[in-house]
Design brief:
By secondary structure, the protein is α+β, with helices and mostly antiparallel strands. The protein folds into 2 domains: 12-183 and 398-481, 3-Layer(aba) Sandwich (Aminopeptidase), CATH 3.40.630.10; 186-396, Alpha-Beta Plaits, CATH 3.30.70. Helices cover 30% and strands 28% of the residues. It contains 11 helices and 25 strands. It has a 6-stranded mixed β-sheet. α1 crosses α3 (116-130).
Length: 482
């Protein structure tokens, strides 16, 4: 058998389990296999467990010697990962393992997301659960499903399964930051019916590619361009110059990932082909000049393609392009209380033409409930204006800041002792399951933390090894003090 990719790296047992997890398909809505793996782990280690109807798993472990009667601690992370890959990756997320790589500094996966978000939390917990030499209070290790598509596992979990009120969530991506509050959110869907008819002319493919992308919560403040909205701007401006029929438009794979690539196919009259090509080139150059500096690798290209004689009607084309152009995207409001914190945003993460509809999926986030509801209403009004249907899924609450938090104070003291500096205590715009658990478990004292990761939810995702080792030691030191 070949050597393990992460063999000999530290923390050894946590990385052993991280590599085991990487062998198991575990994209959102495909978590049965990893859920069963956790059950088999519990059985193999003679630990009590519960696997619920949606495949959440809770594994229980008694306190170590001298800690038997300490307050129970909940360790929590989610099983699912955002399954993104490059256009040329052969990986089938439903059955293939990830192809892990390391240079001794970082870990990544070849051509795909890594799943460090949140595989490292699962790996840490399993390493603690198997050990017999780690001091710790009684533990309830909670592994949830489908966090990345609306925290559906956490929403479904029966709170009666948990006695603990001290909650360590390891779903953050910046070492040295203790997260104590986050935005709430939901997924919003707009589905616009479209009519198809025979159409004569020349086919043109249009591509928007090379954008930076990223996490729609953690990186929305960076102002990165959204390929779906860039495409919408181009199609809208082009429609004002000459008539065309839209065949399809698509871009993005996950509502909570800022899309990097979009494509469209249009049909134009043969006698307007040269005009169309020239207009696309001119508009593309104009749009690229206006993108943020961070998008210097962005490209808008076009090529002639086969015209198969069917396209949207003129009316459907106008509606589809109008809706795509009009839907809001990005930052909608900044916090007035915390400088630099996004308060309300949305991300058009998925755009596709399918089954007679133009379908759009948004990740909506806000730390202010009324602003979140107002954004839902704005999308609903746009749907009504264009004759589309509207729906919301996976609505989760904001996690409010707790002024009196013994856990936060203890974790700050332990951090300062280990690192020689104070941690940063902050609120974030990205969503965390802590809000749902806080609503389910009265009196919950909760902190989220984690090792350094880069570019999560993208194929550039990396997990830093040194930070992973330090965070492991920090977690063990916190458990020893609880």
């Amino acid at each position: 058998m070949p050597n393990r990719v992460l063999e000999g790296l530290q923390p050894e047992r946590a990385l052993y389990y991280f590599e085991e997890i990487a062998k198991i398909p575990h994209g959102s809505r495909n978590t049965k296999q990893i859920s069963d793996y956790l059950v088999d782990f519990a059985k193999a280690h003679a630990l009590r467990y519960v696997q619920d109807e949606v495949n959440n798993v809770v594994i229980y472990k008694e306190g170590s010697a001298g800690y038997e009667h300490h307050p129970t601690v909940i360790l929590q992370g989610h099983m699912d990962m955002v399954a993104e890959k490059t256009k040329d990756s052969p990986i089938d997320f439903t059955k293939d393992p990830l192809e892990l790589r390391t240079d001794g500094v970082d870990i990544w996966a070849e051509g795909t997301t890594l799943g460090g978000d949140d595989g490292i939390a699962v790996a840490y917990a399993l390493a603690i659960l198997e050990a017999d030499n780690i001091p710790h209070p009684p533990l309830e290790c909670v592994f949830t499903v489908d966090e990345e598509i609306g925290m559906e596992g956490a929403a479904a979990l029966d709170p009666e399964l948990l006695k603990g009120r001290i909650f360590l969530n390891c779903d953050s991506e910046n070492e040295g930051i203790l997260t104590v509050s986050c935005a709430g959110g939901a997924r919003s869907d707009l589905n616009l019916p479209i009519s198809i008819e025979a159409a004569e002319g020349k086919g043109i493919h249009i591509y928007v590619d090379g954008l930076t992308g990223g996490h729609s919560g953690a990186e929305i403040h960076k102002g990165r361009a959204n390929s779906n909205k860039v495409m919408g701007e181009l199609l809208s401006k082009l429609l004002k110059r000459l008539p065309y029929r839209l065949v399809y438009v698509r871009g993005g794979q996950k509502d909570n990932a800022i899309p990097r690539y979009s494509m469209a196919k249009i049909i134009v009259a043969e006698n307007r082909l040269e005009d169309a090509l020239a207009d696309i080139d001119e508009l593309a150059a104009q749009i690229l000049r206006e993108l943020p500096k961070e998008e210097e690798k962005a490209k808008i290209t076009r090529e002639l393609c086969v015209c198969r004689g069917k396209a949207m009607t003129i009316a459907s084309t106008r509606k589809a392009v109008g809706l795509l152009s009009d839907v809001p995207n990005g930052i909608q409001a900044w916090s007035k209380d915390i400088e630099g914190l996004v308060q309300t945003s949305l991300n058009l993460g998925v755009l596709k033409t399918e089954d007679g509809e133009l379908r759009m999926s948004f990740s909506v986030r806000s730390s202010v409930e009324q602003e979140k509801l107002a954004l839902f209403e704005k999308l609903r009004a746009l749907a009504e204006k264009y004759g589309a249907s509207y729906g919301e899924h996976g609505n989760y609450p904001a996690w409010e800041y707790r002024k009196d938090s013994p856990l936060r104070e203890l974790m700050s003291r332990v951090f300062e002792k280990l690192y020689g500096r104070k941690p940063v205590v902050e609120a974030i715009h990205a969503g965390l399951e802590c809000g749902l658990f806080s609503g389910k478990l009265p009196g919950l004292d909760c902190v989220s933390f984690g090792p350094d990761m880069q570019d999560i939810h993208t194929t550039r995702e990396r997990l830093n090894l040194a930070s992973t080792a330090r965070t492991w030691k920090y977690l063990l030191a916190v458990l020893e003090q609880l």
